[in-house]
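Lay summary. Proteins are chains of building blocks that fold into shapes, and those shapes determine what they do. In this project we predict the shape from the chain. Here is one chain we studied, written as its sequence of building blocks.
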Amino acid sequence: MLTSLTLSMSCTPLLKTLSTPILTHFALEFPTYGSASSADIRSFLRKFATSLTRLKLSGSPLKEQELIDLFKTLPLLTELQLVHGSWDGMENIFSEVLFNGLHSSWSSVLPQLQTLSITGDLSLSWESLIDLLESRCPEYGNDATCGPLRSVQLHLYTPFEVETKTRFEALTKRGMHVDVFELMTWVAN
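And here is the predicted shape, written in a compact code that computers can read:
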């Protein structure tokens, strides 16, 4: 029985035809911005609300609020990997809307989330990201609506300051392993 699936596509109607009764791991990668339908993606993933534990979305056409709404339907998700698409016309999903939606004080979105990986560029302040992480840290103000994040990997183009590094180190001391990798931007001549 198929429990893990990775698809790389720019056209999502295929998702309507797939049937995998107990999908636990799913990765969907969009190599180019094509005719991807956010409705097809949401409909496909909602079928697995009671089984999906790991999800990777790379270059997803879903907007921030669509992602939050989708995440509300996936309560068993323990691992989430989001990769921002870099082609022209692709909106940056790493914004206040997304991070506020994942903040434990304001919602119970992804209550079982333990591992979070973000790759791309932030369109918000480091403060917002750190607030999100602190809200889900084992020893900070993590409330009962969400389990604590245990591992965070950030692969970002956005440089951070010394104070931000100090706060990441504090999160690690309190039980959340945080790795930050600064990505380099390539400029074509």
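What the prediction tells us: Helices lie at 38-46, 64-72, 96-102, 126-135, 162-173.
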